[in-house]
Structures are given as structure tokens and as C-alpha cells.
Design goal:
Rossmann fold, 10 helices, about 25% strand, globular, cell inner membrane, EC 3.6.3.27, P-loop_NTPase, ABC-type phosphonate transporter activity
Length: about 270
């Protein structure tokens, strides 16, 4: 389904991503981990063409992504939604309109300028918000919501695009453990229930182990681990993070597990 071959992105003398090859044969939930500067964001940004690769190829269902231009590139960006650490909503705009922004690439400039959305789209946006448990906030300005709620609106906006792949760049890095869990549960749901591939950059090992089917570890631009959560032992993690024997998993923990005792699992 997704084939990344010998992908490199150079910024001056630095190879932010260095000759990366990854093959994914079916939609799954993938976590990308690694120390700060390992190249995780650059890898995701090349996938949805926010960055252009220096060399190498990305192929999705037989289509080569790295060379796409103008309308073809926009069409790909619709199929490959992106969620950011800082949510990237329009703060003063209401929640439904933010979700409807997920259809921007599908609409005419005129319709966008005058905020004209088909009724069917508005209903679909509200249905998605309902599914994510935040329909009650639909009419509020995005800026009035908590960080966790804003990230769920961003997920709703991504789903509105009806993408094949959802990329999430440190989606829980700005959230407290409880909201981190809710957002990760939502990402897992859009994989499980909709069959969408989810690729998330994560800075915590416990989150990667708990939510992902496959974990990719990056170090200095290279893939140094690619395996199942079970294979991600403390020793492997130490290699990925380039740490010595004093490496402590607690340093990369969100304490999601500790929360388990306090809040009931969502259905
Ligand atoms: N636009 C840019 N211009 C120059 N260098 C860049 C640019 N973007 C990233 N880099 C460099 O590329 C390397 C990888 O950065 P990247 O942001 O992809 O890493 P990361 O693993 O996502 O880190 P973090 O977890 O801190 O976001 C770093 O050395 C970074 O300084």
C-alpha cells in the first residue's frame, strides 16, 4: 500500500531524513519514535508533500507521490490528512466551520471565500463531531475549547477530508495525560472503524507500545528499528534514543497507564 524507498531530505549539510526505506502492505497504525531532531517530522512532511524530498520515492497504491505537482499534489494532500501538535485550527471560527475546512481542497475558490458549504457537508461535519463526542461544542469558537477538545476538532477536520492516510505530528505533545489518552483513542478508532492508515510521531514509548501495530524508530535521520510493539524492549529504546545504561523509560512516559486506574475505558 505504502512504499518509501531510499528517501532522503537534506537541509544544507544535514540529512534530516537519510536513505529511509519502509514498506507497509496494509492500513495499520504506525508510531514513529526517536529523539528530538531524529527526522520524524521531516519524514511525515514529505509524505504529505509539505516538504519535497531531495531524493528517493514514495509510492502509495502504485502512485508516485514525490513528483506530484499542482492539482495532483492537492488531490494527494486531500487523501493524506495531517494533524499537528498545535492543532492549527482557526481560533476565532466556530468548530463546525473548522471541520468543514477539511473539504477546502474539494471546493471552488468562490465557495470558500463566501463560506458556502453544501447542507450535506454540514450534516456530515456534525455527524463526525458527534462520533468523536464533541458535537455539543459545534457552535463554539475553537479558541473557547480546551487543548484536548481542539485536537479532537482537528481529528474531525482530518476525517472530513475522507483521507486514506492520517498523519499526526506529535498529536499529544501539548496535552495532559487524560486528554492524551482520549486523543490517542480517537486516532485508534479512525483506524479500527474506518480502515484508515494512521502514522503518528510520538515522543513517548508507552503510547507507541499501547496504541500502535508497528513502531518505527529513527535516529539521526535513519530507521534504526522497525518492528512490533513487543519487540520494542528497553534495550532497543536505548539504541533508538542514543542513550546510555542510565536511560529510563519514565523519562518518555505520559503516565497514560497510571490513569487507567482512575478513568473508565471509553467504548
Ligand atoms: N526547514 C528546515 N531547515 C533546516 N533544517 C531543518 C529544517 N527542518 C528540520 N531541520 C533539521 O532536520 C533535522 C530533523 O528535524 P525534524 O524536525 O524532522 O526532527 P524530529 O525528529 O521531528 O524532531 P522533534 O521531535 O524535535 O520535532 C534537525 O536537525 C533539524 O534541525
Amino acid at each position: 500500500m505504502l512504499k518509501i524507498e531510499n528517501l532522503t531530505k537534506a537541509f544544507g549539510a544535514v540529512n534530516a531524513v537519510d536513505n529511509v526505506t519502509i514498506e507497509v502492505d496494509r492500513p495499520m497504525m504506525i508510531g514513529v519514535i526517536g529523539a528530538s531532531g531524529a527526522g520524524k517530522s521531516t519524514l511525515l512532511r514529505m509524505l504529505n508533500r509539505l516538504e519535497t524530498a531531495t531524493s528517493g520515492t514514495i509510492t502509495v497504491e502504485g502512485q508516485e507521490i514525490t513528483g506530484l505537482k499542482s492539482a495532483d499534489k492537492r488531490r494527494w494532500q486531500r487523501d493524506c490528512a495531517m494533524i499537528f501538535q498545535q492543532f492549527n485550527l482557526v481560533p476565532r471560527m466556530d468548530v463546525v466551520s473548522n471541520v468543514l475546512h477539511g473539504t477546502l481542497n474539494q471546493r471552488s475558490t468562490l465557495a470558500t471565500m463566501f463560506n458556502l458549504y453544501p447542507t450535506a457537508d454540514i450534516h456530515r461535519a456534525i455527524d463526525i463531531l458527534d462520533r468523536l463526542g464533541i458535537a455539543a461544542h459545534a457552535a463554539k469558537r475553537a479558541e473557547a475549547l480546551s487543548g484536548g477538545q481542539q485536537q479532537r476538532v482537528a481529528i474531525a477536520r482530518a476525517v472530513m477530508q475522507d483521507p486514506k492516510i492520517v498523519l499526526a505530528d506529535e498529536p499529544i505533545a501539548s496535552l495532559d495525560p487524560m486528554n492524551a489518552q482520549i486523543v490517542m483513542d480517537d486516532l485508534r478508532r479512525i483506524h479500527d472503524e474506518d480502515g484508515r492508515m494512521v502514522i503518528a510521531n510520538l515522543h513517548t514509548l508507552d503510547t507507541a507500545r499501547r496504541y500502535c501495530d508497528r513502531v518505527i524508530g529513527m535516529r539521526q535521520g535513519r530507521v534504526v528499528f522497525d518492528g512490533s510493539p513487543e519487540q520494542l524492549t528497553t534495550g532497543v529504546a536505548r539504541d533508538i534514543y542514543g542513550a546510555d545504561a542510565s536511560f529510563s523509560e519514565a523519562a518518555t512516559s505520559t503516565s497514560i497507564d497510571a490513569l487507567e486506574q482512575k478513568i473508565p475505558q471509553r467504548a
